[in-house]
Amino acid sequence: MFKKPFSVKSNTNIRNSERKKLFASFPSDSVDKFPSKAVFSICKVINFQQREVNVYFCERTPVFFNISDDANIYPTLYFLWQFPAAIPILLIHDQVFEFIQNGADLMLPGVFIHPDYKFPEFPVNSPVSIGIYSGKHGTVSGPVAVGVSLMSSQEMRACGMKGRGVTVHHVIHDHLWDEGAKGNPPIIQLETIFQSATDEVEEDLGSTIESVLQLNQEPEEEKVEEKEEKEENEDSVEENDEKVLFFKRRFLIQCSQYPWT
């Protein structure tokens, strides 16, 4: 998207109402940290493919962009370096990143799935980022690229992680990155961007326990119903006994009036 220089059509400041609409696509704990008096502007550009792109700046640093024929709003690397968990992140190794930096899309066989952390969940056609995983230190460098998912996370796992997974729009050292302060990507810990796989087990265990408790409660309700039914039956038996006793007494009274020998 920004591999080659782009031309600027216009550059104007945006109002607070437009800023709120822009922020609605991202977690509040990240966008709320922007200074309330920060100046936001929108720069309309035409890239080398003749596609129109809106680039949103905060104090002259590109923080978001969206493409004219795409409803998604994508965070730039500068935004993600401050808030790496704002969108799902996929991990790759250094060797795979060389292909991405040369303009290739992310192929799913190049995605690294860490056994101790849950694979992120996301639908098809949603913004995702890409980070470089260091197995030696157990850390992630980046994110180093941003793109759109060509499959949902569920479809990726179902197909055995094969085929094209992400169309890359923005990568470190491209011309959009050149508009910011540059610098090196941060090194982040895995636990800050991924949920532990054990959390899923704990959630499953929690739901299992809850189900068991519900099952244990159901017999109690049945017992109450059985008890009520039993009491009703006992009442009906007592009523029947009283009726039988009444008729017996009446019969005996009638019999006493006759001379039985």
Automatic annotation (TrEMBL):
The keyword Cytoplasm applies. One of its GO terms (molecular function) is RNA binding. GO terms for biological process: formation of translation preinitiation complex. GO terms for cellular component: cytoplasm. Residues 2-84 form the Pre-PUA domain. Residues 216-240 are annotated as: Disordered. Residues 88-175 form the Eukaryotic translation initiation factor 2D-like PUA RNA-binding domain. Residues 218-240 have a biased composition (Acidic residues). CDD domains: eIF2D_N, PUA_eIF2d-like. PROSITE patterns: PUA (PS50890). It comes from the Eukaryota. NCBIfam families: unchar_dom_2. This is PUA domain-containing protein. It comes from Bursaphelenchus xylophilus.
